[in-house]
Amino acid sequence: MSVVKINVLTVPAERREELEQRFSGRAGMVESSDGFEWFELLRPLEGTDQYLVYTRWRSEEDFERWTQSQAFQRGHAQASTEAAAQGQQGQQGHGHAAAPHQGPGQGHGHGHGGPAATGSTLWSFEVVQSTGPRNGS
């Protein structure tokens, strides 16, 4: 069955919009990757400052192949470039949001004004059971 990767990003309230814009700017980067099944950016509603970046893959190998791909590298280069451009416009926060593959403390913004996220942890799961809505009979 599938493999799920959840990147837990700690994001201060004043950086939430920035983080979401960074992910929106990278839309489409992962969807054509072989073995990619699903992506969701989950915003916390209450009681936490942690966003969840949920991706589902056909296999661990497909996920690893994505993290080594040129598309993945371009996505991070694009995020860094956009963050630098924001800095030239006088906006706070530069660097890029963490990508789903990164482990603790990695990839949560290495740009010129600090990260959008202040921490990052990767959780990995194997899907054991899965279900969806029932069709009316």
UniProtKB/TrEMBL annotation:
UniProt keywords, alphabetically: Monooxygenase, Oxidoreductase
Alphabetized SUPFAM superfamilies for the sequence: Dimeric alpha+beta barrel
GO MF assignments: monooxygenase activity
InterPro entries documented for this protein: ABM_dom, Dimeric_a/b-barrel, Heme-degrading_MO
Region Disordered: start-end pairs: 68-119
Entry EC number(s): 1.14.-.-
Root EC class: oxidoreductase
Protein's UniProt keywords contain Amino-acid biosynthesis: no
Domain ABM: 3-92
Coiled coil region boundaries: none
Pfam families found in the cross-reference section: ABM
Keyword Hydrolase: no
Low complexity biased stretches: 75-103
Record field: compositional bias (Gly residues): 104-116
Protein name per the record: Antibiotic biosynthesis monooxygenase family protein
Source organism: Streptosporangium jomthongense
Taxonomy of the source species: Bacteria, Bacillati, Actinomycetota, Actinomycetes, Streptosporangiales
